[in-house]
Each structure stands twice: as structure tokens, then as C-alpha cells.
């Protein structure tokens, strides 16, 4: 049952978690050229031998950032470029997954195809970026024709590849060759390779890097961890519960077994309890427990007590009788209610004469006892001795018969089996 609930909870938590991480925990880094942490710049091919001219147009309120460009012929790779710099610190884009662009371009192309834009993420690394000149930042590039796409255009950061033309002029050790987006210093938007001489414009309305606060892979790993820890905790708890259940059932059956050997009214052993105690005695003491004497006693005229004072008083008399015997017997002696108003005392390592003396002493104790309802209660006593384990049953019978002889002889007396 608990397992079923735990599994249901985990399944729901996993579903909600995956959905929430995908849709509700996105973080956005917006590039709009307004924040002071960003600086806009127009760049062109002047520095590399061309004569193209790029400039930023004044930005109308709420309007796009516009790079206006005149591509001029006479140079193999003419270009104009809108650069967004972050002078206050490089961007760590590793926790972002996408770049969303609201971007359009205009301008003629050599093959009359739709104009393209090249987006560069340029990263700094002390080993190859020297003093941080833009040409020495590692460019990660994506080329596409934005006017053909629905806006915003969504680019996965995994699609950005290190530009091969840059890698040729900047030979890197193998570990540094791949994409590296932990220190992006400049993001730029450049005219496409097919840009033909003439007037070009790149209009950037907005750019956003989008990601999850927790990377999906990390989140999924966390979920796997959650499942493992939860199921492990369940197994530990279940094992502990099973042990506890077992302990409780052992305790219960012990309690029941004890109850089965005890008389519920007088709280002394019943006939089965006495048998069990005698067996244990023989196991533990063997022959050493002998001679063993047994005393049978039966309350006199008990029926009259019941008839005259009621059953409850009769019960109280039985309880008083059992307590009086218990209080006045040595600890090793076994006391049991044989049935009705009849009790048995088994005395290990006690010869007959000694047992008779004990019975006499108890008979006198009864005479001094304060009985319920001010009653005077006496009993008839029969005593017998077993010299070895084989004689125990016979001794019990003999003591019983002696007790009946005590009744017949007028009650309130002790008679031994040998008498
Ligand atoms: N109150 C009560 N009475 C019990 C209990 N067990 C047995 N008795 C009663 O004990 C009485 C025993 O009566 P009898 O066997 O005639 O013996 P007695 O009246 O003691 O007479 P003698 O043994 O001949 O002295 C019966 O009335 C039983 O109902 C018990 O647990 N509680």
C-alpha cells in the first residue's frame, strides 16, 4: 500500500517536475543594447583591407537597433557588423539552451538569394585572445536567412560551431578546439557571405538567451537520484517494519502462551501452568529437585459461601486464598489453581514431613487471615511425596486422595499420603 502511494507520488512528482522545469523555471537574458552593461558598435571591413562603411542609425523609441551598411566592391570578403559588447564582464552562456532573435536584414545578394545574417558568439580565453581584440576572440557561428523564418527565430546554442576560417588563423591545442561558451565577450550580427555591393541593413529588435535554472540533464539526474533515494528509503523502512511486526507477533504469542498457563481470577498458574513448571523444573534440576512434595488443598464448604454471600464474594475469597498462599510460601514452591476452589502446591527438594509442617503452618495462617465479608475460611489439606520424576503423577493423585480423607475426617486438617 505504502509502496503504491510512494510510486504514485514519484510518478506525479516526476511529471510535474519535468513540466515545471521545462516551462516554469526558464531564465532569460535579454540583449537590447539599452542596459549599461552592453555597448553597441558598428564594425566593417576597413581594418582588413575593404572599404565598406557601417554605422548605427539613431534608435527610435521602442524601435530596433539598426546597422546601416554600404558594402563596397574591390575586396574579397566585404562585411558590416553590429557588435554587442559586455564591458562589465563576460557572459557565461553554459546554462542557456537557446538564443531567440527578433531580427530582419535587407540588402542585395550576389546570387539573388534571400539576404543572410551571420551570428557570432565570440569567446575570450587567455591562451588565444591576447589582450581581447575582437579578431582574437573565438567565434561561434550560425548563418541563416532571417526574413524567411517566423519571428522570433530560435537558435539552439548547440548549433553554434567554431568558425573554421578563424581556426585556420588561430591554431589551437586540441582541448581548446571545441565550442566554449563560458566567457562570451562580444555577440555580433554580420552581413552574409553572399552580400553584394550596395545598401544593407541589419535590424535587431530584441535578442534573448533562454535557459532553465536547472539544466535539463542535471534535473533528470536529480530525478533519478530522487527515485533511487526514495525506493532505498522505502526498502529500509519496509525491512524495519517487517522486523517490528515480527517482534510484536512474537511478543503477542508469548503473552498469549503466558495467559494460557495462568488462572485469570487468582493470577496464579492453572493446571497446565503447573505441568509446564514441573517439566521445566525437571529439565533444570533433574534429580536434584527431589524429593518433591505436593500439597492439595480445597476450601471447605465453599458452595455455602457462594450461596450465602454471592458469587462475587466467593471470587474474592478465592483471590484472598491464593494471595495468602503466595505470600506465605518460599519462592521456589509452585502454586497453582487446580480447578474450582482446589489449589496445589509443589515443593521441590522438600521431604514429606517438611511439606506437612508447611501445610500445617498455612492452615494456621488461614485461621488468622482477614477474609472477605468477615468470613472464617478453612481448607482441607492432603500431602504426598514423589522421590523421582516418575512418581510425580502418582504423588498428585495421592495428595488429592489424602485431601478427600481430610474432608471426610471433618475438614480443616492436614493428612499426608502415607497416613
Ligand atoms: N465464586 C466462585 N465459585 C466457584 C468457582 N469455581 C467453583 N466454584 C464453586 O465452588 C463450589 C464447590 O462446591 P463443592 O464441590 O460442593 O464443595 P464445597 O461446597 O466446598 O464442599 P466441600 O468441598 O465438601 O467442603 C461450587 O458451588 C462451584 O460453583 C469460582 O471460580 N468462583
Automatic annotation (TrEMBL):
Molecular function GO terms recorded: diguanylate cyclase activity
PROSITE patterns registered for this protein in UniProt: GGDEF (PS50887)
Record SMART domains: GGDEF
EC numbers: 2.7.7.65
Key word Nucleotidyltransferase present: yes
NCBIfam families, per the entry: GGDEF
Name of the protein in question: diguanylate cyclase
Organism whose genome encodes this protein: Pelomonas baiyunensis
Lineage of source species: Bacteria, Pseudomonadati, Pseudomonadota, Betaproteobacteria, Burkholderiales
Amino acid at each position: 500500500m505504502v509502496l503504491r502511494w510512494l510510486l504514485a507520488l514519484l510518478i506525479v512528482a516526476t511529471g510535474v517536475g519535468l513540466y515545471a522545469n521545462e516551462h516554469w523555471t526558464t531564465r532569460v537574458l535579454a540583449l537590447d543594447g539599452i542596459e549599461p552593461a552592453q555597448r553597441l558598435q558598428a564594425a566593417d571591413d576597413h581594418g582588413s583591407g575593404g572599404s565598406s562603411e557601417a554605422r548605427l542609425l539613431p534608435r527610435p523609441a521602442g524601435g530596433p537597433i539598426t546597422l546601416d551598411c554600404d558594402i563596397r566592391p574591390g575586396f574579397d570578403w566585404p562585411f558590416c557588423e553590429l557588435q554587442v559588447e559586455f564591458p562589465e564582464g563576460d557572459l557565461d552562456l553554459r546554462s542557456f539552451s537557446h538564443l531567440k532573435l527578433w531580427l530582419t536584414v535587407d540588402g542585395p545578394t550576389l546570387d539573388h538569394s534571400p539576404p543572410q545574417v551571420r551570428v557570432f558568439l565570440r569567446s575570450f580565453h587567455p591562451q588565444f585572445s591576447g589582450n581581447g581584440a575582437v579578431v582574437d576572440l573565438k567565434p561561434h557561428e550560425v548563418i541563416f536567412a532571417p526574413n524567411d523564418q517566423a519571428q522570433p527565430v530560435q537558435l539552439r546554442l548547440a548549433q553554434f560551431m567554431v568558425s573554421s576560417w578563424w581556426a585556420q588563423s588561430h591554431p589551437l591545442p586540441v582541448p581548446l578546439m571545441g565550442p566554449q561558451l563560458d566567457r562570451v565577450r562580444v555577440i555580433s550580427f554580420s552581413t552574409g557571405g553572399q552580400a553584394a555591393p550596395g545598401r544593407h541593413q541589419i535590424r535587431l529588435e530584441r535578442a534573448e538567451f533562454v535557459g532553465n535554472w536547472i539544466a535539463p540533464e542535471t534535473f533528470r539526474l536529480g530525478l533519478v537520484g530522487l527515485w533511487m533515494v526514495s525506493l532505498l528509503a522505502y526498502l529500509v523502512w519496509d525491512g524495519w517494519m517487517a522486523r517490528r511486526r515480527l517482534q510484536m507477533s512474537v511478543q503477542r504469542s508469548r503473552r498469549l502462551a503466558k495467559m494460557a498457563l495462568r488462572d485469570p481470577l487468582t493470577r496464579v498458574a492453572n493446571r497446565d501452568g503447573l505441568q509446564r513448571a514441573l517439566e521445566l523444573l525437571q529439565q533444570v534440576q533433574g534429580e536434584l529437585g527431589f524429593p518433591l512434595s505436593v500439597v492439595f488443598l480445597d476450601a471447605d464448604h465453599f458452595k455455602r459461601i457462594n450461596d450465602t454471600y454471592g458469587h462475587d464474594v466467593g471470587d474474592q475469597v478465592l483471590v484472598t486464598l491464593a494471595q495468602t498462599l503466595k505470600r506465605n510460601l518460599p519462592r521456589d514452591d509452585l502454586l497453582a489453581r487446580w480447578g474450582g476452589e482446589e489449589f496445589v502446591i509443589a515443593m521441590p527438594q522438600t521431604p514429606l514431613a517438611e511439606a506437612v509442617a508447611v501445610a500445617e503452618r498455612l492452615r494456621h495462617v488461614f485461621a488468622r487471615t482477614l477474609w472477605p465479608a468477615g468470613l472464617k475460611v478453612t481448607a482441607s489439606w492432603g500431602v504426598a511425596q514423589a522421590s523421582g520424576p516418575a512418581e510425580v503423577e502418582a504423588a498428585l493423585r495421592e495428595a488429592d486422595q489424602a485431601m478427600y480423607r481430610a474432608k471426610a475426617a471433618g475438614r480443616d486438617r492436614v493428612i499426608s499420603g502415607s497416613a
